[in-house]
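Why predict the complex rather than its parts? Because the way molecules touch one another can change local conformation, and only a joint prediction can capture that. The input here totals 976 residues.
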Amino acid sequence: MSERRSAFQLDWWLLAMVMVICAISLLEIYSSTHNSSLHGMQWKQLIWIGIGFAGMLAVSRVDYGTLLDQSPLLYVLSVGALGVALVAGSKHFGARRWIEIWGLNLQVSELVKLIIIIVLARYFSEVRTDRLTLGDLIKTGLLVGVPAGLILLQPDLGTALMLVPIAAVGAFLAGINWRHAAGVLALGAILAVVGWNGHFLKPYQKQRLATFINPEESPRGAGYQILQSEIAVGSGGFWGMGFGKGSQNQLGFVPVRYSDFILAALAEEQGFFGVLIMLLLYLALLLRLIDNAQKAKDRAGMYLVMGVAAIFAFQVLVNAGMVIGYMPVTGIPLPFMSYGGSSTIFGFLALGLVMNVRAKRFVN
Amino acid sequence: MIVLGILLLLVGFWKLQIVQAGHFSDLARKNRIRTIPIIAPRGKILDRDGRVLVDNYPSFSILLLRDDPAQIKKDLPEITSGLDVTARDLEEQLKVARNEPKFQPLVIKEVASDADLAFVEAHRMDLPELELMLVQRRRYPPDDFLSPVVGYVGEVSPEQLAQSGGKRYKPGDIVGKAGLEREYNDILTGTDGMRRMIVNSTGKPVRTLDDMEPIPGKPIQLTIDADLQHVAEQELAGKTGAIVAWNPQNGEILAMASRPAFDPNDFAVRISAKEWNALNTDPEKPMLNRAIQAQLAPGSVFKIIESVGMLESGVPPANFHVFCPGYGVFYGQIRHDWNPKGHGEVDLHKAIAESCDVFFYNVGMQMGIDRISYYAKALGLGKATGIDLPGEEPGLVPSSAWVERVYHHPWYPGSTISLAIGQGPIEVTPMQLLRSVSGIAMGGVFYQPHLLKDLQPKVVKFPIPKSIVEEVTGGMYGVVNEPGGTGVFADEVLKQDHLQKIDFCGKTGTAQTISAEALLRLSAAERKHYRYDTWFVGFAPQHDPEIAVVVLVQGSALEAGGVAAPIAARVVAAYYQKKMGQPIQELEAQKLPQKKSPGMPQGKAAPAASNQ
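Output of the joint prediction:
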């Protein structure tokens, strides 16, 4: 009986918003690739969406209590998988991020994001005090730090950074002493300085961050990407150049215009108006997630949904910021918009978690 | 917070799209940035004295800018006729390149002729999609000089492109494909720069942006001595084989020649599929660097390795001697000595000097396959020497376990008798054999051979007692300097007074390229055309040698003493002449061709080899 009930317990509003975003994504992928050798990419993306959707239904039906119970095992497995990917994974674009399973290259770190959401949800829900103690904070740091470090070694700065907002939002909700918060911020700043001056960042990562500060400096490298992206956005005007008519997009000036920079392609062709609609859609999506979090039956459920919301919000802010040169180029995709198997499937699985929590909201 | 963030983003987009829209759409309209790469010259290759062996020369390539496909389509007939390229080739190239961003131009003609240059210059206005690019091409020395070692460059392969993940290389890049060009590609390759200009809608440059200067590749200095290399190559002219000369005390290769060879200048631009296939299917295998890639039976040179094994293991004891009637019976089979008259009473010294087969048949029988195999491997055979060149072959040292693993039958003791004189399933490269024999002369110190001057060679040690080294090298001294020695032809070369004191030692080897049985099955006429692989490995002086040479002549009609030994001696002579500051006679002779040094059997072997 509960099976049938939960099928109708899907958050239809949430799903509708995601589907609209996916539809726009397919159109924009088509527009930016149809007259190049990559044409037909929208169909591949459609397959990813299909797989993701099936995954979402599957995740929404497993009791999230079970997932929380298994979180230590999941955590160990995911850290292990990251280790394997680092040692044995195949090299794509110079980084070891992928494990090849059944001929598909899966980006392990995407799955790890999901598991970290679950692990932190359990961890924070079991904190019984009103405020996190210093010990709690250190444990949180370690829980996130180990996988984040492994992802950083791949090297994938963007994904590693994505783990931070989950912990930050969780800690904020669990109650953080403002002194501790200031301490963490200071520590982060020190780490950033050490990371910059030490040899932890790959030269290309440093270059990207450096050009973020001064894009005109190297017009061929990362600065070139930001500049071309800005030109695309800027030349869109209010109403845009029209579908399939953005010259920056069509001539291939916009870097990876079907994936990380898809918002630039959209901004050029649909103008400020299109961007406004997109960002409002994301805002609605995020507010809907927060609403779901408030209705969760227990603290763990609330942390789960807020973890998902934290990642999505971070991705939207950083990706959109990158497109207009407010943020460095870190390779963070726009959820449900950017082309990509791993990130699309992750998005839907995360959505599955949210649906799952929502389905249990009346169950005692 | 989220609302705040989204609002902030909207403000950002507003600023770009509404406030500065005019500025950016201007930029977009003008955004036909023409990028012309400035190719970084590859690093030069220098010999040990700093003489330039390989450098570059400037030349122009013609680029097709692909940012306006419609324009290209319209102008295609004019371009193809003006530049004398076929429309089909051009369309094919455009199809292949459609994956690349449109602002990356296409090289449609590697080497522009003067007429091509004039055509492009004259049509600047009506064919704006054509552009010239200055490139630096590789200039290799003439006459295939050092070519199997230096290798050649060529366009980066799709596999290399995929491997580099789009970071290291881009399509059309020139990279080292073989030899040192490949081994030290990372040092030799520079970073390309680019010239960037904004062009207006008619394709006319409006203004140039800041150029990015190319960073030239770094030069490499080799251990090769160009003079000695010339001598070595001259000695191999018209033959099939290899010569390597090195300093056994530090692993520096002074000369490495392999013939026949190829002209890398043919590859410097773009080689046609037909030429390429011709080179690769040539039965003479000109693409092979025989010094490190020819795997052959060492013949009697192997007796040196065996002698060390015998003295080290005491099986048979050091004072072992036999009477050689010119044959022996082993495991029910008659085995002949190379000298049917026999050598009489033979001890180790005489056995090495006169290369007595019967002596070593007996030694081999007593040692047994696995003891021989152990010493051969310990003395550096059967594995790559680690030279800094790609594609080195490991050779093969058989053992009873190897035969059982590969052929699933036990080792036939009879095979040990063949192995005892370096025949049968044993394969060495000239480089291996040189390193092994030199290492023995050095008392068991084996250096990693290397061509890069700055390389710190690895050293493998297998200490051999002084008395053993003395005994074995003494035999090798006899090969060259005692009556009856198989290498006395070498002595002829060194008779000149200033070379008499160099104590040249060595060992000859003659390997049948087919088995003795097969040789017997041949008709008399066929047997007359039968050729040997002849070897000579020599060094000087006898104690702490500073120069060692290996000579391999394949398909030679004469036995080793007559062909390979004098060649080795002439290389060593050249080495000492240079060291003593005297003119190198062989190079002098080259300048005055009528002056020919007497008594060289070189001319005799030459025609046979080229036409085997």
